[in-house]
Amino acid sequence: MPHASVGDRNLFAYRERAAAPVRFEVVNEAPAVVAVAPVSEPVRIEAAEEQPRFGYRFIGTFGTRERRLAAFTRDGEVIAVRAGAKIGADFVLRSIGIESVEVQPVSAPALPQRIAIGQ
Question: How large a percentage of the chain has pLDDT more than 70?
Answer without folding.
Answer: 78
